[in-house]
Amino acid sequence: MSAEQTPAPRAPDPKAAAPETLDPTGPRPLRLTAAALLAALEGLALLVGGAFILVLGVTGDPDDRQQAVTGGVTLIVLALLPLLAARGLLGRRSWSRGPAVITQIMALPVAYNLLQADSMAIPGGIVLGVVAIAALVLLVNQETTRALGIRGPGNAQE
């Protein structure tokens, strides 16, 4: 492009709203804290459930000991995702929202399957579904997004 075709740089628009800045020393928003607590609750539930299955698989008389041990270890490992996300949310780390959202999305089909059972699992499905939806709402809330320093498309600083 020649100098004649190059557009002149535009001056900043004084009417445009200044982007809100993140104050890391300010108080943590209640919605962010609540989302972190829900993620931690889910992580602890997975951890306790996995430990319970693992202990029963090792000490009890399961139909398939290897399957019980594998299931327990799998649940314990899966508990790491929401627990790390909760820690990151409490520390206002922007990366932590992704794992927290993924955890909630994975919890919804589990809750649905629990609701389809004809057993004592139905109340668990209700609780899991309510917690997952509440956590998703808290995680995508504008106040939470702002507190984590996440900018939407087209809002990146140049």
Number of DSSP-assigned strands:
0
Mean pLDDT: 85
How large a portion of the residues is in β-strands, by DSSP E? under 5%
Give the terminus-to-terminus CA distance. 22 Å
Gross morphology: elongated
Uncertain residue ranges: 14-21
Oligomer: single chain
Provide a count of the helices. 5
Entry keywords:
mainly alpha; 158 residues; elongated
Give a verbal description of the structure.
α1 (30-59) packs antiparallel against α2. The radius of gyration is 22 Å and the shape is elongated. It is an all-alpha fold and 158 residues long. The protein starts with 29 loop residues before the first helix and ends in an 11-residue tail after the last helix. The chain has helices spanning 30-59, 65-90, 97-116, 121-139, 142-147. Residues 14-21 have low confidence and may be disordered. The chain is 64% helix and 0% strand. It has five helices and no strands.
Brief sketch in words of this structure:
64% of the residues lie in helices and 0% in strands. The chain has 158 residues and is mostly helical.
Secondary-structure blueprint of this entry?
Layout: H1 30-59, H2 65-90, H3 97-116, H4 121-139, H5 142-147
Helix pairs in contact: 1-2, 1-4, 2-3, 3-4
